Amino acid sequence: MSDPWAAALAGPEGEALATQVDRFLTHRELWVAVRTAYLDEQVRAWTHAKPKMRQVVLLGAGLDTRAARLSCRGVRFFEVDHPASQRDKRQRLARAKGYPVKAATYVACDFEHDDFLTRLAEAGFRSDVPALVLWEGVTPYLPEPAVRGTLRRVASGCHPGTVLLFDHFLKKVIDAPSRPAKDDQARSFVETLGERFVFGTNDFVPILFEEGFRHVRSLSFDEACLSLTGTYLREREFRFQRIVLASRSPVGRV
Ligand SMILES: C[S@@+](CC[C@H](N)C(=O)[O-])C[C@H]1O[C@@H](n2cnc3c(N)ncnc32)[C@H](O)[C@@H]1O
Asked: Which pTM value belongs to this model?
């Protein structure tokens, strides 16, 4: 896996942040790589399947470069993000030499005030066609009602063949009494960036069921890492994240 644009988009400030985080999140680089590689593999599989997903939606896209890296004939990528984040990204893209800016359709949306499906439809997204929806690195920062609201809109407003992929934290990172000291450092650091870890759960099945999903697969980071690298180390600190695939209709692929 390689991302020819990551360094240019992150800039020196991104490198500096990563170095700071590595002091207390020892295996951060590996788990971000595992998460990226796993979701990349899913995007590749779904956009090359027969029949294939013709729409890929990146909810809270941030500096995601999948539209450029994983573009596929006949597949449209939509990047939905807060207007301020999207403005910043587009300035960075303009400076990243050779980046195919037109690989994605950019949809500005504040999840707290706008309905993302309305915004997507205005940009050409079709809710009568299945979509692969990626929601990466976002759920820890949203209160549970906002997480549920997004799940409900995907389940009720998209084609039943739509597949949602997202990651989430476990409860121990959020609940103070049982939190390891290193997780407190991670929380404090995120708070200096103006963000907060607010939501985590050990079991997403009840929430997904209540919001309309009927098929769920959940994967730990150790499992994803083992599949992707063939390695396992007991002392790896993959202690607070899982990756979930959810859909309304049965899907054969995880
Ligand atoms: C931690 S970043 C994750 C970015 C990317 N998906 C990744 O995994 O690297 C969280 C993203 O959620 C977006 N976000 C947070 N709150 C939002 C809101 N109220 N409306 C729209 N986007 C929001 C931010 O703009 C940001 O792009």
From this structure: 0.94
How does the average pLDDT of the chain come out, rounded? 91
Ligand 1 in reach of 167 Cβ (< 6 A): no
Question: What tokens were used for 246?
Answer: 């959810």
Q: Is 112 in the pocket of ligand 1 (CB under 6 A)?
A: yes
Q: Using CA positions, which residue lies closest to atom 23 of ligand 1?
A: 82
State which H helix or E strand residue 217 sits in. strand 215-220
Separation of 230 CA from ligand 1 center, angstroms? 31
- The rounded distance, in Å, linking the Cα atoms of 31 and 208 is 24
Distance in Å from the first CA to the final CA of the chain: 19
> Does residue 111 line the site of ligand 1, with CB under 6 A?
yes
- b vs e for 25-49, b when ≥16 Cβ sit within 10 Å of the residue's Cβ? bebeebbebbbbbbbeebbeebbee
| CB-ligand 1 contact for 138 (6 Å cutoff) | yes
* Strand ordering across the sheet containing 241-247: 104-108, 76-81, 55-59, 132-135, 163-169, 241-247, 215-220
User: What are the structure tokens assigned to 35, written together?
Assistant: 């998460």
The answer to whether residue 14 scores a pLDDT higher than 70 is yes
> Could you tell which of 35, 81, 193, 199 is best to mutate to test the pocket of ligand 1, judged by most ligand atoms within 8 Å of the CB?
81
How confident is the model at residue 179, as a pLDDT? 61
Q: Domains in the chain, please, with CATH? A: 6-247 (3.40.50.150)
Residues 156-178: tens digit of each pLDDT: 999 999 999 999 999 988 876 65
* Residue nearest ligand 1's atom 13 by CA: 60
